[in-house]
Write a sequence for this structure.
């Protein structure tokens, strides 16, 4: 007898390894993570690799509003300041402010939302009353008024005001999710075993709300970026710091757009747009990851070599499809016969169906 060599067993990647978790992420989340990771790296190493000091004003008139060159890759401002150095510094300041605001506001949302839902009674009414009052306040006008009367308009004042106005939305969502989880069997079992309240909250309830908490954090960071840039653009925030909003403010005040100095306002505007895109894609990916219905809806199937979305009508395969030119295929796609039968097959599919039905009746 000839010994048959045995094939090596396939090595299965455990689901809890980082590569396995990365493969399970939706494509939108992967793109968002990569884009956001690039900005995080720039925020960390940007101030160290900046070719010039962002506030250095070159006295030479020839360097005023200079177009991008080898010495200044993104050109200079009207005062001779290097735009690339300001951009590398501004990305870090804008992103750090937004992440800190998002983290603090999300922590407040978790504490208020979980406590209101689990404790109930007067606690729920008082906490939700405060959240509703703050929620109905117009955020951007209130930010302009508060920061306008603030004697020290720094990043700390902007962060405090943004945090105070961003936690109620997440608190209401987390409260609703907590009310649904509180009635589950595992929470009731934890109560019966004598677990402490704080342990039930942070060991049983909060871990089941990770996807909602992550989505709330991403939304808060996105709002903080937009609000901080808008406040700086209208001149309410601290104009002595070099953030993306202050870059746009000085470019607008010095009429960079009318003078054709696109290198002054375009890079910070593109950076803000890309950061917003990364956060939106990450939020969509988190929703798909936490909702099985969204994951199923994004899947594509192939029938007869064509990709079909779940919302498309059920395809009808033709018995003998006829080759058509591009124009004929477009015209045929608008006809009623394209949904039922192929005209080029002379009704063979319909005859096959009717013949099968007759044979079934005879049997």
């Amino acid at each position: 007898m000839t010994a048959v060599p045995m094939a090596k067993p396939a090595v299965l990647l455990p689901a809890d390894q980082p590569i396995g978790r990365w493969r399970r992420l939706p494509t939108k989340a992967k793109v968002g993570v990569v884009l956001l990771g690039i900005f995080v790296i720039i925020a960390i190493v940007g101030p160290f690799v900046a070719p010039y000091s962002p506030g250095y004003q070159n006295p030479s008139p020839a360097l005023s509003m200079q177009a991008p060159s080898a010495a200044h890759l993104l050109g200079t401002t009207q005062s001779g300041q290097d735009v690339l150095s300001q951009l590398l510094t501004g990305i870090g300041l804008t992103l750090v402010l937004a992440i800190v605001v998002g983290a603090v506001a999300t922590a407040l949302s978790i504490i208020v939302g979980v406590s209101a839902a689990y404790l109930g009674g007067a606690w729920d009414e008082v906490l939700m009353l405060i959240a509703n009052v703050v929620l109905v306040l117009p955020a951007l006008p209130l930010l302009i008024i508060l920061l306008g009367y603030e004697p020290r308009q720094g990043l700390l004042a902007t962060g405090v005001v943004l945090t105070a106005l961003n936690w109620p939305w997440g608190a209401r969502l987390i409260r609703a999710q907590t009310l649904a989880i509180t009635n589950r069997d595992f929470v009731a079992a934890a109560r019966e075993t004598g677990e402490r309240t704080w342990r039930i909250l942070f060991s049983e309830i909060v871990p089941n709300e990770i996807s909602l908490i992550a989505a709330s954090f991403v939304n808060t960071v996105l709002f903080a970026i937009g609000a901080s840039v808008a406040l700086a653009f209208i001149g309410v925030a601290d104009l002595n710091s070099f953030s993306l909003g202050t870059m746009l403010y000085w470019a607008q005040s010095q009429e960079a757009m009318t003078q054709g100095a696109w290198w002054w306002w375009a890079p910070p505007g593109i950076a803000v747009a890309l950061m917003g895109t990364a956060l939106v894609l990450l939020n969509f990916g988190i929703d798909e990851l936490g909702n099985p219905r969204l994951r199923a809806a994004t899947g594509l199937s192939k029938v007869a070599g064509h990709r079909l979305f779940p919302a498309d009508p059920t395809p009808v395969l033709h018995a003998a499809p006829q080759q058509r030119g591009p124009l004929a295929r477009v015209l045929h796609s608008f006809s009623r016969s394209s949904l039922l039968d192929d005209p080029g097959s002379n009704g063979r599919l319909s005859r096959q169906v009717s013949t099968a039905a007759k044979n079934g009746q005879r049997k």
Residues 91 and 151 are 25 Å apart (CA to CA). The longest helix spans residues 83-119.
